């Protein structure tokens, strides 16, 4: 199978490339080699390589940068995806689009999440607050319209062992933060109002192959969770006797990004729960 992989210089794309490069024929152009905002370049590139499937990881993925420069976010996250989806649709090629749980960030938290907690389903009508979430949602709609064979994966925040270059670029990995807390006895604040799943990037990489075989549609794609970030971290640190290192903070605006994983599970894709995944990551690196 011939795969076009976008964003191969990024966190997920680079790990996908090293994991699958022996198994598939992969064209993984860098941003410089193929700028997705250039519709002609995308068309020419797709024509020359003729992929059987496209895995679209390229994005302006930093939520803060999207708020600061919505025009750039629209160009990359919406127009770039549109250019790719249009070509994939014309060529009847499967498109696997990396979306985000931020599409679920859609309103003020009323009352107590502990009582009102629910896990988001793929078929909800959404009104995301952050620019990044809005643009990911627009891109999802374009993928479905222009390339009906699209598989859209709503990813959670991912963690992994970061390279020096990734650290220098400001990437943060919850798994590595927790390892540092345990090793160095460092205290750290976590929000009691931030409800979300967090997933091991390597598990996402492994499940990308079965994801290519999914029927078209939208899938929540990551570790489920029913706890706030603060409670999550306390649960993970407890077996090490380090849970007091986690300090509660109200953080910014409360949000619930937790996703219901049942649709992916029905197709055999079952991520470990967030606490389990983080605990395994922590143990493997101490
Ligand atoms: N990481 C997470 O926790 C997370 C969570 C939820 C969803 N996602 C989504 O998952 C996907 C992968 O995330 P990631 O963390 O791997 O992202 P990342 O590390 O920020 O990498 C994004 C890649 O996209 C490339 N890119 C940006 N603009 C481009 C353009 N116009 N044309 C071609 N390439 C371009 C970047 O190249 P340059 O650096 O050279 O510009 C970079 O290699 C993204 O769609 C992201 O939105 C990620």
Describe this structure in words.
With 286 residues, the chain is α/β, with parallel strands linked by helices. The chain has a domain at 2-159 and 199-224: NAD(P)-binding Rossmann-like Domain (Rossmann fold, 3-Layer(aba) Sandwich). It has twelve helices and twelve strands. The protein has helices at residues 11-20, 39-49, 63-68, 70-91, 113-116, 131-146, 164-168, 174-184, 201-212, 229-237, 262-266, 274-284; strands spanning 2-6, 25-27, 53-56, 94-100, 151-155, 157-159, 188-191, 194-195, 198-200, 217-221, 246-249, 255-256. A six-stranded parallel β-sheet has the order 2-1-3-4-5-10, sandwiched between helices. A two-stranded parallel sheet has the order 6-9. The protein has a two-stranded parallel ribbon with strand order 7-11. Strand 1 (2-6), helix 1 and strand 2 (25-27) form a beta-alpha-beta unit. Helix 1 crosses helix 9 (201-212) and helix 4 runs parallel beside helix 6 (131-146). The chain starts with a strand and ends with a helix. The site of NADP nicotinamide-adenine-dinucleotide phosphate has 24 residues, from helix 1, helix 4, strand 4 and strand 6.
